[in-house]
Amino acid sequence: MNPFVSFFLSLGGWIMPVLFCGILLYSGARKVDVMSAFLDGAWEGLMTAARLVPVLAALLCAIGMFRASGALELLTDLLAPVARLLGIPVETLPLALMRPISGSGSLAMLREVLETCGPDSLPGRIASVMYCCGDTAFYIIPVYCGAVKVTDSRHALPAALAGGFVGTLFSVWSVKLFF
Amino acid sequence: MLNRIFLGLLLFSLAAGVFLGRGEELTAALLDQSSSAVRLALEMAGVMCLWSGLMKAAERAGLAKAVGKLFFPLTRRLFPKLIQRELEADGPKEGSALEAITMNLSANFLGLGNAATPLGIAAMERMAAASPESRCATDEMVLFLVCNTAAVQLFPSTLAAVRQAAGAAHPLDVLPAVWLSSIATLAASLAAAFIMAGMSRQRGGKKR
Question: What is the complex's ipTM, to 2 decimals?
Fold first, then answer.
C-alpha cells in the first residue's frame, strides 16, 4: 500500500474522534457544564430528526423510482451525442447524471467506471473527479428546506444544477489538463 | 420550482418505467424506500444528537465564535445582511445563524458528510427564525444551500478508498483536478445563485 495514501486515509479516520474529544475537553477547560450543554443540543437534534421522516419518505420514494425505472439508461442514450460534443466520455455520463440525485447511486457508478475502464484510464480519472465535485442537490435542498418547513426553495436547485454542470465540464478539462 | 422539478422527475421515471416495462421494480422501490425513510431518520437521529450536542458545547465555550472568525472573509461577502442583523440584535450569543453556517461549512470542508447535515439544518432553523412566517427560501438560504451542494472537500477519503481498492497506481493523483473542479463548481453555483436572485428581483418578485 502506498504510504502517502495510507497516511491520508488514516488521517481521515482520526478527524471525528479528535473533534469529538477535542471540543468537549476544550469546553470543559473553559468551565462549561459539558454534559448539560451536550444534552440540550442533543435533544434539539433528536427533534429535528423526527421532523425529517416525512420529507425523507417523499424524497426517497421519488429517487428510488428514478433509479428503478431505468430512466438513467434512457437519459444516457438521449444525451450521449451532446456529451460527445462537449468532450465528456460517454462512460462517465451516467455518473454525471446520477451525482446530484443519489450519493450511494453515484458511488456505485464510480466503482463501475473504475472497474470497466480502469482507475488510471482517462474515463476512470474523470469519473473520480466528477464523484468529488458536487453533492446530492436533489437530497440536500429538500431535506434542509423541509426541516424548517420552507416549501419554496426558489432558485436553489437550478443554481446548484448549473454549478454541477460547470463542475462536470471542469472535471473533464482538469483531468485532460493535468494528465 | 422544486415542486415542478420533482413532479418532472416522477413523470419521467414513470414514463421510462412504462417504456422499459419495469412496473414491478417501481413497486418494489416505492415500498422499500418509504420504509427506509424511517430507518434513515433513526440512523440520522443518533448522529444528529451527537453533532447538535457537540455544537452546543462548542458554542458555550466560545469555540464556534472562533471558527466563525476564521471564515469571516468568506461569510462577510455571502451573508452581509445576516451579519448586520446579528450585530444589531446584539442578543444572546448562543444560537447565532452565522456560527451554525461556519460550523457546517467547516464540517463539509473536512469531509464529515454526516456531521454537516445536523449543523446545516441548525443553520437553516436559525435563518428561518428571522422570518418565521415565510414559506419561501431567502436569498441567504439559497446561497447557503448552494455552498452545501457544491461540497468543497479537502479530504476526499471515500474517493481515495475506492480508487485504492480498484488498484490505482497512485490513488490520489487526481487530487489537484478534484480541488480545481470543486472550486469551479462552488464559484459557478454561487454565481448562478446571485444571477437568479437578481432575476427574480427584476421580475418584481416578493421583496426579501
Answer: 0.89
